[in-house]
Amino acid sequence: MANPIRWSIAHWTAVLPVLAIGVLAISWGRSLSASAVIVIAVLLAGAVLAAVHHAEIVAHRVGEPFGSLILAVAVTVIEVALIITLMISGGSKTQSLARDTVFAAVMITCNGILGMSLLAGALRRRVAIFNSEGTGAALATIATIATLSLVLPTFTTSRPGPEFTPPQLAFAAVSSLLLYATFITVQTVRHRDDFLPITTVDGGAGEVIESEDHESPPTNRQTMISLGLLLIALIAVVGNAKSVSPTIERGVAAAGLPQAVVGVIIAILVLTPETFAALKAARRDRMQTSLNLALGSAIASIGLTIPAIAVASLWLPGHLLLGLDPIQMVLLLLTVVVGVLTVVPGRATLMQAGVHLALFAAFIFLATNP
Questions:
Q1: Whose CA, among 34, 75, 207, 209, lies 20 to 30 Å from 325?
Q2: Angle at the Cα of 244 (from 240 to 249), degrees rounded to 5?
Q3: So which domain of life are we looking at (predicted)?
Q4: What topology does CATH give the domain 12-368?
Q5: pLDDT tens for residues 262-316?
């Protein structure tokens, strides 16, 4: 979890949510000009970043394991809100939006963020050192949840197409939630040492250490202010997403891009703060922290989003298509195989970083040119 930075009432993370909620009140239910959409989109992105920031402050005050849950739930609320808002307004074109967004989150975290983190670590120490036990557990959880939720719908026969029946969807949702809860318990309680940073000395592994960050928790007043601003930011995100969603969909269609690109945009927007935090940790020689952020974000994205979307599907119009297409399944399989080969040794070089970044580039290219 990224360290919360100290802030004042004049800090941008306090100002932007208030501005975003004010613009929402003014623009709600009105026809928007192009300039108004641009302003709202900028404030929407700022509100997402501010929401994650304030969730981190509250999480830092609460402590583990509940702190990680607060941050994950806040990010998931944003992701689910954007998905549901676009699915409501987009009709049948957005039936696969949840699948595309969750798959994009897996590719971004397991190849994009992971690859950049390994690159930063390898450039700093020639060999990036991390704990294979904890990182391997995270990768195994991602592979299992992704397969149960995104691969199996393509092969089930109870319904035509890549769609679960209600009992199958309920099973996938409960399984995802239980696996996520189990991982959080293992990471924060039973096997916490497997996820702690380790020192590196001349390219070799050293002793396990707790953390180099000893910033004192925020005060009760700061925590309550952040909690209030977090709620304001989440409301602003949901409302402003509804306002700009038609423009986003028209823009993607006008550019001749596949509908799946919308899911990629949502995933990038939601995961931007965690990307910066992971890269910062890698540059400070905290590779395990960096990988925890990358893979933990993927687990939360699948393990919490799929159950939330499953519940929302009870009243969402149309079908919920979760099964991956052949290109996506090939990329997921290759990501898991390469991830295993990267994680097992507990050390990685520029070669492993390059392979993951190549997979990430392939995902972006094929998302726009399937």
A1: 75
A2: 145
A3: Bacteria
A4: A middle domain of Talin 1 (1.20.1420)
A5: 888 888 877 877 787 788 778 888 888 888 888 888 898 888 889 988 888 888 7
Q: Which tens digits make up the pLDDT trace of 212-268?
A: 444 677 888 888 888 888 888 878 877 887 777 777 777 777 888 888 888 888 888
Q: Which two tokens stand for residue 169?
A: 């969807």
The three-state (H, E, C) secondary structure of the chain, written as one string? CCCCCCCCCCCHHHHHHHHHHHHHHHHCCCCCCHHHHHHHHHHHHHHHHHHHHHHHHHHHHHCCCHHHHHHHHHHHHHHHHHHHHHHHHHHHHHCCHHHHHHHHHHHHHHHHHHHHHHHHHHHHHCCEECCHHHHHHHHHHHHHHHHHHHHHHHHCCCCCCCCCCHHHHHHHHHHHHHHHHHHHHHHHHHCHHHHCCEEEECCEEEEECCCCCCCCCCCHHHHHHHHHHHHHHHHHHHHHHHHHHHHHHHHHHHCCCCCHHHHHHHHHHHHHHHHHHHHHHHHCCCHHHHHHHHHHHHHHHHHHHHHHHHHHCCCCCCCCCCCCCHHHHHHHHHHHHHHHHHHCCCEECHHHHHHHHHHHHHHHHHHHCC
How is the chain split into domains, by residue range? 12-368
Say how far apart CA 108 and CA 355 lie, in whole Å.
14
Confidence of residue 69 (pLDDT cuts 50, 70, 90): low
The pLDDT score that the predictor gives to residue 103 is 94
Contacts of 341 (CB under 8 A, 6+ apart): 352
